[in-house]
Amino acid sequence: MDLFGTAGIRGSAVDSVTPELALQVGQAVGQAGREFVVGRDGRETGEALAAAVEAGLESAGADVRRVGMVPTPTLAFASIGRYGVQLTASHNPPADNGIKLFDDGVEFDRDAERALEERVADGTAPASWDAWGNGEDIAVLEEYRSTVASYLEPRRVPASHPVATSGELPDSPLAGVEIAVDCGNGMGSLATPQVLGRLGASVVTVNGSVDGHFPGRPSKPTPETLTDFRAYLADSDAVLGVAHDGDADRVVLLDGTGDVVHEDTVVAILAEYYVRSADVSDPVLVTTPNASGRIDERVDAAGGRVERVRLGALHEGIERARRKSGDVVFAAEPWKHIHPALGTWIDGVASAGLLAVLVADAGGLDPLRAPITERPYRKRSIRCPDGAKATAIAQLESTLPAEYPAAAVSTDYGVRLDFDDGSWVLVRPSGTEPYIRVYAESESVEDLVAAVTDLVESAVEAA
User: Fold this and answer.
1) Which long-range contacts (CB under 8 A, 24 or more apart) does 392-395 make?
2) pLDDT tens for residues 423-433?
3) Among 97, 137, 196, 410, which is most exposed with the fewest C-beta within 10 angstroms?
């Protein structure tokens, strides 16, 4: 049984993530004496699925604390010292839903997911009638917002940064700064505008009502789905815009003209900030194989180092780096960031706030981008049946290095080639769809992608 993808369980609420499955997951993960917080996003199917999870948990002997509709980072925050379940399909269409599980603020790792899959497959019986757990409603959103605002309030561009400015932060770091937030009718509506407001910003909220139909735009924020928001920014006085997906674990950054800032540039900005701010001997950024070399360049310039881990496994990368005695100061994959000094969860609300503070302190977004080399970037998907992926990738582990003998090769998570001029290409199988993905960054990116795509297609045909 393969329940979990790269980010929890996710799929159609009618055909896949059904109340029956939610009940089974609750019974399989719940145990006598455990305490769970259960939350959900604003999807129409969330209330019923949350009720099914709660029934499963309590019938297994666990106690449930219902937190209602909250951003996923809020649920993760509430799971500190206990377990957590969030019903959310993140950026998926409104007919989908999903289940994310947390243990003490950390998403379940691969071992925990596999163990849970086995228990669901085997089936679990309810506890004795007199050993069932109980449920109650609790409030966590206000505490979460206060915690994030307090974390962000003293932040500023570090003195060692190339664009550091002199002077003290005002009492409110975003005083006089106009910021636009497109919440996409999702959970960001309940946290990001409020946190930015507490930091002094003048906040304009777009699509700020929670609505599981996502009437304002599709839940996934992309340049195409953000067309109206981009047009608004171009005609507004906002210095920047931020946009969230349905549960606010993702964040997209836009400049004051409405242009979307590349997700790897956003990671580079945050990574350089954290490395330069860290008072540790071995500051480490954990990221994924598809992350740009521009990130490595800024982390290296700041005196840190980069470690990579498979997509969807930032927490595993953090643990591995810590076992090697590294101090993980930041962890990120595209659009999703973990701020270890705040907490162990992916948090788009905290990212939105920190980016706003850094932009305000630097006197704009452009100074923060100036040290970053932004080479052309492309991503391409080549159709490949799931059963052929392993054979095709095994062949590419030989053919790609042979075609580019001067490149440094890594085969930890697909095949990645790094070139002396900072260019790179990654070929990896999709974990959720019948594709092999090609990611590339180069001044001659079209030629590189075309050549690598030919090799991938040949490998797929031979598989």
Assistant:
1) 392/429, 392/436, 392/456, 392/459, 392/460, 392/462, 392/463, 393/427, 393/428, 393/429, 393/436, 393/459, 395/459, 395/462, 395/463
2) 999 999 987 78
3) 137
pLDDT per position as a tens digit, 298-321: 999 999 999 999 888 899 899 988
Query: Can you give the pLDDT at residue 19?
Result: 96
14-23, 323-332, 428-437 — which one is most confidently predicted on average?
14-23
Q: What percent of the chain has pLDDT over 70?
A: 98
Is 292 marked active-site?
Answer: no
- State residue 314's pLDDT score: 92
Region 9-139: CATH code: 3.40.120.10
Q: What is the CATH number of domain 143-254?
A: 3.40.120.10
Q: Does domain 377-462 have CATH number 3.30.565.10?
A: no
> The sheet that has 424-429: what strands, in order across it?
377-383, 435-441, 424-429, 415-418, 408-410
**Across the chain, how many H-helices and E-strands are there?**
14, 20
Angle at 244 (CA atoms; ends 307, 376), nearest 5 degrees: 55
Question: Tokens 């049946």, residue?
Answer: 385
If one counts every other C-beta atom within 10 angstroms of the C-beta of residue 130, the result is 5
Q: What angle do CA 207, 186, 241 make, to 5 degrees?
A: 55
Tokens of 177: 């700064």
